[in-house]
Amino acid sequence: MPKKDWTLTADGLQKLLLALDPDHNVAGKRYETLRRQLIFFFESRACRSAEDEADKTLDRVAIRLTEGLIIERLDHYTYGVALNVLREYQRKLPYTCPPPAADDAEEIERRHCCMERCLASLSADTRKMLTEYAGLDRRDGNARKEMAMRLGVSLNALRLRVHHAREELSECMKRCFEECGD
Question: What is the pLDDT of residues 7-62, one digit of tens each?
């Protein structure tokens, strides 16, 4: 599938401004307010190119309007697009915590010890869910759906549970590394 061209046109900008408000002056002010809010949205999520990502978000919304999409709640839709733009941005970031060098046995042992300690701090159900979820083939959506059905939750609820459990594990790992620091 070819990649979508997200280049903003003059028509797209006009449709976005019209969707913001029929009065051109009011629309311009609302555009700037929305843009500032989006910049704050990206900055608060540690995005170094917040202005570019905000502009990219508004461009995509404008383009969707030129394609004929009718948007009931422009602000909600725009933040949904912003979340997708943020995810794309985050996927492009380099992995920030490289594994220790193979010859650094002490560091490997420290990480292993912290991981064991942090996994043990989770409830048995959470630990089981995380390990099972991690073992699933990422390309197999059915395996995740089956897991969600077994747990009696929706697929989105499963993703949220896993996300929160990973955050909890990550925070524990950070604390452990600080306590056992050099």
Answer: 778 888 999 999 999 999 999 999 999 999 999 999 988 888 899 999 999 999 99
Q: If you ran DSSP here, which 8-state letter would residue 8 be given?
A: -
CA distance 156 to 42: 23
User: DSSP secondary-structure letter at 49?
Assistant: T
How far apart are the C-alpha atoms of 83 and 111, rounded to whole Å?
A: 32
Structure confidence by residue, pLDDT tens digits, 141-157: 788 888 889 999 988 88
| Residue 68, Ramachandran bin (φ over 0: left; ψ between -120 and 50: alpha; else beta) | left
User: Amino acid identity of 51?
Assistant: E
Residue 55, number of CB atoms within 10 A of its CB: 16
Residue labelled with tokens 């193979």? 102
List the chain domain ranges: 10-92, 105-179
| pTM for this prediction | 0.52
User: CATH number of 105-179: 1.10.260, 1.10.3470, 1.10.10, 1.10.287?
Assistant: 1.10.10
| Other C-beta atoms lying within 10 Å of the C-beta of residue 62 | 23
